Amino acid sequence: MIKTIYYRNFKTLRDTVLPLGRFTLLLGPNGSGKSTAMQAISMAGSSSNFFDIVSADLKKVDNVTVSIAIEWADDYRSLDGKRKIEADGLLARLPSPMTVNVESQWRHSGNTIIVETYQNASSLLQLPERDKIIRELSSFRIFSFDANAIAQPMTMNPGIQLESNGAGLAGVLENLRDNDPERFEFINKELGRWLPEFDRILFETPAAGQKGLLLRTKAGLRIKASDLSQGTLFALAFLTLANLPNPPAIVCFEEPDRGIHPRLLREISDAMYRLSYPEDYDDKRAPVQVIATTHSPYLLDLYRDHPEEVVIASKGQAGVKFERLTEQSDVSEILKGAPLGEVWYSGVLGGVPTEP
Amino acid sequence: MRLAVLSESSADEAAIRIIIDAIRGEATESVPSLDLRSRGWPSVERILPVVLKHLHYNTDAEGLAVVVDSDDSTIHQPDHEQSEIFLECRLCRLRNIVASVQAGLTPVVNRSPLKCGIGLAVPAIEAWYRCGVDPQINEAAWVRHLQSQSITYTRRSLKLAVYGTERPNIETATRFAIDSANRLSDNLQLLTRLFPNGFGALARDITDW
């Protein structure tokens, strides 16, 4: 899992460190670099055009290097926290405190360089482990659901997966129905709990080779995906992603609260935790590292018992800064008796728009 | 009796209803089409006047139970009841709101005043769920914690002890809440003894209805 990311000269992230955990809730004002930080992860190791990613004021400066250094440590929080995790051996761990740094550098000259350094490495780091790190990093996906994309009938093809905007949901669900009926039935059951008016996911074939999605109401009505509300479609996409047998190893959710009723945010939070902590949900698959960005005080309220999972982005004269909530001084005293979301909105924790 | 419950989650509400039924010795009913929820302290303080007015004017609710977590706030003590409202005590503050709002309500024909019961879960409702399982968890211990003495548990460790995880989903939380409440229903005396002011206050309110 990614422990920290060091950004240098990457767009607005001139010299910034982002600390991450198994689950991280990232919040801050618009334009504070949250999305840029996520975009950078997806570009790690890629041969992107230097001029597309370098900080705007450095485009004409010679000898500038853009870099993203990812510090990697398998399930380091569990190792550091001495928390016993039992997941049937699914967690192949690196011995703490060994970490691996994977740094991507982009140069003015057009060179892209990948630098790997291994701290406290030993013969334990065999090629498969290295490949696993690269594989997991390259599986990173940013999800920002779009109701039209989810509702659109899709062309069936082998290897179908849930796209970043939610497209492909019908095919993914049908694959689950056919190949992992236990998970499919669980999703149906959860659907009825999250959205009590519905009791079943159904499918239609609007044209040859195409697949569409419907939901059946408890009264027996069949509602086409295109007639479902945006929030219903988003909730179904979350529910599906949280219950996939092989989700991406690292995911980001851009504003998972968007379109969701505030009372359903607990379920959205549960779904994200299910991805991050499958062992707590009796799910026998590897944990997913989840990063969620939000502007919602309601969603933030749900993390009052886990301030270490909250990272606040602030933009000032010195550039963008990411800070874990627990690193702020006297934060536990400040938060006593006050809802986290309201405290954040007040501005005392930072991460709010500043007056011009 | 038609009972409304104002709590932070559906899991808490499920447990509170079972415990109240056990205190009363008979099953209460929900108020139709009413699904109250608070967002925890201090929002419960702001929403309570509205809830009281709504129940009085628009429903046939006969009782309202409110349970809030004490977190790190002052624990209710018997001497609070002999004095003016104790500003640092959440239970006293909620009682004061109930008294002042109800005093200002216009009587409704054939409508008796709403009966209210207020409980303080010290420091969270999971502490009640551990009653009968871990004798070290009780109000007196938490008072020692508030006096900066070291004790064996925290809000987070309570969750871990009750649910087996610090991050229970709502379904798991509800299942454990119902199981715990059913178990506690057979041992209300112990719950009252270990949580005399937070749970005891609720039990006394309900018994007086």
Task: Give me the oligomer status.
Answer: heterodimer
Distance N to C terminus of chain A: 38 Å
Report the portion of residues of chain A in β strands: 25-35%
Percentage of residues in helical conformation of chain A: 25-40%
**Structural class, from helix and strand content of chain B?**
alpha/beta
Estimate the global geometry of chain A from the Cα principal axes.
globular
- For the termini of chain B, the CA-CA separation is 10 Å
- Compute the CA-based radius of gyration of chain B: 17 Å
Structural class of chain A: alpha/beta
Sheet with the most strands: spatial strand order of chain B: 2-1-3-4
Q: What is the element string of chain B, with H for helices and E for strands?
A: EHEHEHEHHHHHH
In DSSP terms (H or I, runs of 4 or more residues), the helix count of chain A works out at: 12
> What is the H/E string of chain A?
EEEHHEHEEHEHEHHEEEHEHEHEEHH
The helical percent of chain B reads: 40-55%
Low-confidence stretches of chain A are 77-97, 120-125
Major beta sheet summary of chain A: 6 strands, mixed
Describe this structure in words.
- The complex is a heterodimer of chains A (356) and B (209).
- Chain A has 356 residues and is an alpha/beta fold.
- Chain A is 29% helix and 26% strand.
- In chain A, strands 7-12-13-3-14-15 form a 6-stranded mixed beta sheet, with helices on both faces. A 5-stranded antiparallel beta sheet of chain A has the order 2-1-4-5-6.
- The longest helix of chain A is centred in the middle third of the chain and has 14 residues, at 181-194.
- Chain A is globular, with a radius of gyration of 21 Å.
- Chain A starts with a strand and ends in a 10-residue tail after the last helix.
- Chain B is 48% helix and 10% strand.
- Chain B contains 9 helices and 4 strands.
- Chain B has helices spanning 10-24, 43-58, 90-103, 125-129, 139-146, 155-163, 170-185, 188-194, 199-208; strands at 2-6, 29-30, 63-69, 115-121.
- In chain B, strands 2-1-3-4 form a 4-stranded parallel beta sheet, with helices on both faces.
- The longest helix of chain B has 16 residues, at 43-58.
- The chains are: A alpha/beta (356), B alpha/beta (209).
